[in-house]
Design a protein that fits this description.
Elements (H helix, E strand, L loop, with lengths): L6 E12 L3 E8 L2 E8 H6 L7 E6 L11
Antiparallel strand pairs: 1-2, 1-4, 2-3
Length: 69
Amino acid sequence: MKISARNRLKGTVTEVTLGATTAHVKINVGGSILTASITNEAAKELGLAAGKEAYAVIKASDVMVAVDD
């Protein structure tokens, strides 16, 4: 895979929940769970299922930073 996005996190799919049109995909990345919303069609085309390795690719024009008081 080659992609221009710099923020790609490799992990393992833990759950795929199909909805009416949108799938929620949970990926375990180093013990943290990331959840992505993608189309059901994309989830099926990628063959996503629990236990499969996948990348969470994050593309955003802004990133906010916060700290605890």
